[in-house]
Structure formats: C-alpha cells, structure tokens
Amino acid sequence: MCSTDITQPNPELASRIESICVELERADWYSIIPKLWPNAKYIYSIMTGSMMPYLTKLRHYAGELPLVSADYGSTESWIGVNVDPSNPPEKVSFAVIPTFSYFEFIPLFRHKLNYNYQNGNITSTNDDYIEGNPVPLCQVKNGQQYEIVLTTFTGLYRYRLGDVVEVDGFYNKTPKLNFICRRNLILTVNIDKNTEKDLQLVVERGSKILSKGTKRAELVDFTSHANVTKQPGHYVIYWEIKGEIDEKVLDECCRDMDASFVDHGYVVSRRTKSIGPLELCIVEKGTFKKILEYYIGNGAALSQFKTPRCTSNKVLLKILNVCTIKRFYSTAYG
Predict the structure, then answer these.
(1) Using an 8 Å Cβ cutoff, are 137 and 143 in contact?
(2) Is the Cβ–Cβ distance between 149 and 103 less than 8 Å?
(3) Nearest one of 205, 149, 172, 174 to 332, comparing CA atoms
(4) CA 169 to chain centre
(5) Who's near 189: CB < 8 A, 6+ residues apart?
(6) Residue 155: CB partners within 8 Å, gap ≥ 6?
(7) Range name among 38-42, 167-171, 212-216, 220-224 with the lowest pLDDT average
(8) pLDDT-based confidence at residue 259 (cuts at 50, 70, 90)
(9) Measured on CA atoms in the order 248, 250, 254, 260, is the torsion positive or negative?
(10) Per the database record, which ranges form the GH3 C-terminal domain (predicted)?
(11) pLDDT average, residue stretch 43-52
C-alpha cells in the first residue's frame, strides 16, 4: 500500500506548524508540546531514578502541562503503581501490587567505614551497605531502605533486582516505595563508595553553575568512570553540553562537583591524596547519541535504554575519550 493511500498532504496544517515553530525557536522551544498538541492533558513518562536529570528540560518543553510519572516496573516484573498522579515527579511513590510477583525485601543499613592504615595507604573491606535478613511485603517498615527480591510467575526465583527503594508510608496496607538508586552503580577507587544518587546530586549542583557568566549553556547528558589505570585513581565525569561556555566557568563546575561529594571515604581519600583530582571531560555534540546507537546496534530495546551513569565498558569509554574536546581538573583540595 502506498503511503499516499493512508495520508494526504495538508498545506494549511503544514503552514500553521511552520509558523508555530518559527515562533517557538525564538523562545528556545518553550512549551512546544502544548503548542503543537493543544488537546494534550498531561505528559505520562518515566521520570524517576536515572531519568530525573531530564526533568528540567521536560518541564521547559511541557509548559503548564502536568507531568505524570509512570508506573514502577522492570523487565522482570511490574512492581507498583502511582496512586497519587497529581504529585510532582520528585515526590512520587509507588504502591506495590502484591499480585504482580511474590516480593521480598532485603533491609539495607548505611554504616561508618572502618579504616586501616597500611604502608601509608587507607584500605577498607566493608561493603556499601549492611544487609539484614529478607522480609516479606507485610513486614517492611516505614522509612527503611531495601533491595527488592522477586519470585515471578514466569520462573525467576528470589531474583535480586538491584533497585534500592525506601518505604514512604502505606496505601491501605500495601507499602509505597520511593526509588533511590541502582545498587550496582557505584563509583569507587579506594574506600570511597558513591551511588548513582550521590553522583546525580553532585552533577545537579555543578550544572547550575553553567548559567553563570556572559555565555549560557545547559547540560545535555552525563556519565562517569572511576579511572584506576593510573595512581592515584580518580573520578572522571563526562558532560555533553549545549551552547558556549567560558572555560573559567567549567573550571568552577569541576571544582564544585569534586567538593560536593559528601561520602566520608571520598573526602578522607582526597585530603590524603590517595584519590586524585576529579576530571571533567567535555565531549562533542552527539556523543551520547553514539552511545545510544551502540546499545541499539547490540540488541538493546530503544524503549528500555537508559544512559549508564557509571561505566567501565571499554567500548563506551573509547567513544567518550575519542569525543572528548576539553579536560578540566579539580583544585578543590589544593
């Protein structure tokens, strides 16, 4: 069937869209979604976890349209639904649906690291969390963090999902969960342990500085890597930015991010110089699109793709390093 049998040219509509786009381009595309789709009532999407850094830009495009966070699910199983869709994405929690799977929860406890001083170096054998014994759905406690464990109807038995969640009250008798971070995404060089959430907060703080100065820019996407090929090891954060920005501002962004990590192991290691200065790499436009194309080309589903926030993948690192156009090193610790 020819495409012309399905759709017909509409010069009047095309002219109207063109005039809207000309107007929107002057306003940096603010409120483009309701302008092009005037009957839209809300925007429904995934806006928690690793997707949260895109909220600012999504709000810019959405204008006054409400943002509704999607249900909480994974490839292995659906987990919960948003019973308060009017809440902003930053305050969304998901009520667990007990019939989706059989759920268990491993209690997670933060603890102080115990440091050993050997040959002038600091070492630690402790993990990022202390784990308690798994508990069923009916025994979770408000305010406690857990890792989710699934037993599904399709054959997964006590599968550790890797998601860290926090109980944020109850809907009737089922717990409501806040997504905190992916547990296995950890930046670590020595005794330091920074999660995806820690990295996200640091990048948010550093990217706010981009609006300073005579030139303005915005963060498009980011990822990170713990480089231990040289001693001392150090963190590398890759930024793709839109617009022009003074190098002095990028220097300040780098320094501010380095100083914003609050993990005690990182702070101690930076002060004793067992972790080197943070490195900020600015990559060329389109770099993260190349990463997307790499994943899609290797069989990943487009609807399931999320930019990895911490990577040691050699192919990804090659793409990032080849596309790096500027490097900055932190002076936060002298």
Answers:
(1) no
(2) yes
(3) 205
(4) 24
(5) 226, 228, 232, 233, 234, 235, 269, 275
(6) none
(7) 212-216
(8) very high
(9) positive
(10) 198-314
(11) 82
β-bridge partners, 232: none
- Map residue 68 onto helix, strand or coil: strand
User: Quick one: which of 145, 58, 42, 47 has its CA closest to 92?
Assistant: 47
Residue type, 142: N
Report in angstroms the alpha-carbon separations of 274 from 97, 116, 226, 255, 262: 46, 13, 13, 18, 16
Show the tokens assigned to 184: 């296995």
Cα(157)–Cα(178) distance, rounded to whole angstroms?
Answer: 24
Q: How many CA atoms lie within 13 A of 168 on its CB side?
A: 18
Instruction: Report the alpha-carbon distance of residue 166 to residue 144 in Å, rounded.
Output: 6
Instruction: Please report how the helices 196-207 and 247-260 are oriented relative to each other, as an axis angle in degrees rounded to 10.
Output: 150
pTM: 0.73
Integer CA distances (angstroms), 212 to 108, 186, 198, 201, 332, in order: 39, 30, 24, 19, 19
Q: Encoding tokens for residue 237? A: 């954060």
Neighbours of 111 (CB within 10 A): 10
Do the strands 279-283 and 234-243 form a parallel or antiparallel pair, or are they unpaired?
parallel
Q: List, for residues 61-88, the tens digit of each pLDDT value.
A: 999 999 998 788 888 899 999 988 888 8
Q: Which residue has 């290691």 as its token pair? A: 269
Whether 288 contacts 221, CB under 8 Å: yes
CA–CA distance, 181 with 176 (Å, rounded to integer): 16
Q: What's the mean pLDDT in 183-210?
A: 85
Task: Please name the residue that has the structure tokens 């501010």.
Answer: 256
| Nearest in space to 226 (alpha carbons), one of 272, 262, 186 | 186
Q: How confident is the model at residue 134 (pLDDT cuts 50, 70, 90)?
A: very high
- Backbone φ and ψ of 117, nearest 5°: -100, 115
